[in-house]
């Protein structure tokens, strides 16, 4: 079935919207390690705000593998991966923003793990996963400290 908008553009009755081809560079603070790995702290956007460069693909490989693991094709379309990345970044930004709001309501300058847990408290699956990962981090830190003491360093 033909898309009526595409049909109109082909027939010339409707001009396609011209995209602003002047990319803007937007600095993303707080990601100095990613800068060393190539393009992690800089997001290149088109004039309409959409990401358009490989420098903007921070999670490309990981998302491609995750999509495959959840039943997508082995090599999904780049547009699909870009969409997923946009959704992931939007979710993370929203989570951090809400955690910052909770922290400021509790008169703190920075959010802590409990603020994140408070934000996701209604999603029990995510909450249990965060609690598990925090417990795992404590165990890993204990093992690392034991390893350092045993080596005599």
From TrEMBL:
Subcellular location: Nucleus
Transmembrane segments: none
Keyword Transcription tagged: yes
Pfam families, sorted: TFIID-18kDa
Gene Ontology cellular-component annotations: nucleus
SUPFAM superfamilies named among the record's database cross-references: Histone-fold (SSF47113)
InterPro entries per UniProt: Histone-fold, TFIID_TAF13
Comp. bias intervals (Low complexity): 43-53
Keywords linked to the UniProt accession: Nucleus, Transcription, Transcription regulation
Compositionally biased spans, kind Basic and acidic residues: 15-27
Principal place of residence: nucleus
GO terms assigned for molecular function: protein heterodimerization activity
Start and end residues of each stretch annotated as Disordered: 1-55
GO biological process: transcription by RNA polymerase II
Similarity comment: family membership: Belongs to the TAF13 family.
The name this protein goes by in its record: Transcription initiation factor TFIID subunit 13
